[in-house]
Each structure stands twice: as C-alpha cells, then as structure tokens.
Amino acid sequence: MPPLRHRLTIATTQPIEIVDITDQVREWVQQSGVMYGLLTVMSPHTTARITLNEREAELQRDMIAWLEQLAPAGNPYGHNNAPVDDRLNAHAHLLGLFLNASESIPVSDGALELGGWQSLFFVELDGPRAQREVHLHLLRTE
Predict the structure, then answer these.
(1) Strand intervals (E) in 1-142
(2) Which secondary-structure segment (H or E) carries 24?
(3) pLDDT tens-digit profile of 73-111?
(4) Closest CA relative to residue 45, chosen from 136, 133, 137
C-alpha cells in the first residue's frame, strides 16, 4: 500500500526561526484515519530542518542564540562569493549539518507517539521566506 502524503506550507519572518508544527501534523494524522503506522516528516530545503524538542519560549531563544553563535551570518564563507540564488546563506547550509532533514514518528491508536515534552519543529535557517514546505509521508502498518 502506498504511503499517504501531505504537504504543509510555512511562511517564516526571521533569519533563524523555530516554528511549532506539532498541531498541524497531529491533525492531519488524525484525519488520515490511520491507526498504526510510521510518519516521516521531511524538509526538502537545504537551509531548513525538522527537529523534535521541548516547546518552551526561553529554550527556543537559547536555541536560536546558539545557532547564531555556531555559524554567524557575517563570517567570510567561500559559498557567499558565488551564491546560487543571490542569498548569502553559507551559514545556513553549515547549520544544516547539525540538524535533521527529517524525523520519523510512530503512530499508535491514531496518534503521534511523542514524549510528554516533545514537540515537532520546522527550523528556518535562511529566512525570512514567504513559502517553505514540509512533506509528510505516513506508512500504514496495520
């Protein structure tokens, strides 16, 4: 049986932004009618990622500050000498090395199997962007 597929569209407003997509994904899984399966959530962008972590405002600010320090946007990166799309975004590509492009989450009894503190996030590393996508693939295992 082929997987069920869905796409979320996200607009971002900050250079680095952490967007909670848990509720949107949870709603789609519930509407799918799948009781048992495996959901893969994937970013098709090289400068945006998917991660599981705790949703807490101060922690999210800490995450953004840490990412900004890890690969500062203003450093003289070679990629910025000849950018593909006129975006000086080498820092975003480098940050992508430390985050996942996808996460897989089990589905049981029609719900995402997330830990009590876990939320699912889209992490923008090269914003703002008017349109980004998140791909959802749900494999039924029942």
Answers:
(1) 4-10, 17-20, 37-42, 48-54, 102-108, 111-112, 118-124, 132-140
(2) helix 22-32
(3) 999 999 999 888 889 999 999 999 999 999 999 999 999
(4) 133
